């Protein structure tokens, strides 16, 4: 399976997809999947643009809105995590992930998916210690403080990812894991980025929680962005395990922002359709830890050893079978993208200074997901806890697109077709997806009064599920010298291409290894406070 890795996208989807098309034509292969490592900027309209925490001079609609509106369709399946330059109001609608446009999937605050047997995990945002222990209390319209805190990662997402076993194949983060520079060519990095020296020497460059995840999950691959430079490293974990780390630049001319990997996948066969599926273990972890959700602006702590409540949420087989039953034994992610707000119209005159932030909206993708898994939408909880109305969308999609059902995927697979002629005849608007009014499908919070924090809502089930075997890593000779090069990642020699002023590094071969009821105020013991020291804040 051929995967393209992108650093910071910064909304330049047209340029990225055009570059991938040029690579495919030149090299004679097809890219199966595009992964973007944050700063995706999925701005649908000028209101979304107001929710980005960037200087006004950098506010630019770019080209995502074309893929949201249906003017264009992403030519390759795309998954991404959030960074610190995002339309945070839109991403908040999808805390557990979802389609932001046809064929473009967001992983959520933290998420795990399977793509033809390759297990990909990601965590969105950047680390700031002063917000790490807080709940998800923010929602739009934001003030200048919450516009930034909303994209800071939270402890619950790291805690959930640390429950994963077996390990993931690829892990994505926007900022780098702390300490990763010790395993690559630090001298070369400092020649290019001399301002990093002080932070590197004081071990402050990068994210402490990501360092924890790196050493816990030990994924074969880790990809990042954020620092706007290319850097590679090999992190040994003992027993022959190693993580190949690669950070990429932002999408600008003559910058190394794209890398293509040919990943060996035992479960893939020539011509097999690339399919995006939920990860059963991750779904079960989300269900088991739903009671740990916080929407408060004050600090809280995850349970730990010795506290009396459950602290290990690695799912057992019975718990996973029960969740699988909830999804009717079908883990394929439904193609249920829905537009709930109007896309940007570049032909319409607008005074940007008069545009205001939108009110937070509940997304039917999240509502459906939470219903299936019996968990809570943190955005909905935050709105309820603060006494705000649960805003629903009144947007009517007038796009000349209809949806038909593919016989290969029964009722779940949706194919977008141009139906302009039929619309002209009927003179009636059509919808990308038929959807009920949100107010008619909003569930009650899953919080249950008078229940212990470790109580599970899972019921036993006799359903069975097959266990997929993870891809097996090949044995490699590792070179950890200061003369470390891209070849030490076993990614072959790069080919640098220049297309329309942009550049990319193309690598031919690589291997992969393997409210009605208000939520209770959870009181967590402060036994783990020492690991969140103040000096890790920035």
Defining key terms:
single chain, 538 residues, alpha/beta, seven-stranded mixed beta sheet
Descriptive overview:
The protein has 16 helices and 17 strands. The strands form 3 sheets. Strands 4-5-3-2-1-12-17-16 form an 8-stranded mixed sheet. Strands 10-11-9-8-7-6-13 form a 7-stranded mixed sheet. Strands 14-15 form a two-stranded antiparallel ribbon. The two termini are 38 Å apart. The chain is of the alpha/beta class. Mean pLDDT is 80; it is low at 400-443 and 448-538. It folds into 2 domains: 2-394 and 443-536, no CATH class; 398-431, no CATH class. Helices cover 21% and strands 16% of the residues. The chain has helices at residues 13-27, 46-49, 64-69, 88-92, 129-132, 146-149, 155-161, 186-192, 197-201, 208-217, 280-288, 317-326, 364-373, 378-385, 420-426, 438-441; strands at 2-6, 33-36, 77-80, 98-101, 104-106, 110-115, 118-123, 170-173, 221-224, 231-238, 241-247, 256-262, 276-278, 401-405, 414-418, 495-499, 502-506.
Mean pLDDT: 80
Largest sheet: 8 strands, mixed
Number of strands: 17
Tell me the radius of gyration. 23 Å
Spans of 5+ residues with little confidence (pLDDT < 50)? Answer: 400-443, 448-538
What does the overall shape look like?
globular
Tally of separate domains = 2
What percent of the residues sit in helical stretches (DSSP H or I)? 10-25%
Percentage of β-strand residues: 15-25%
* Terminal Cα span: 38 Å
Provide the spatial order of strands within the biggest beta sheet. Answer: 4-5-3-2-1-12-17-16
What's the tally of helices?
A: 16
Structural class category = alpha/beta
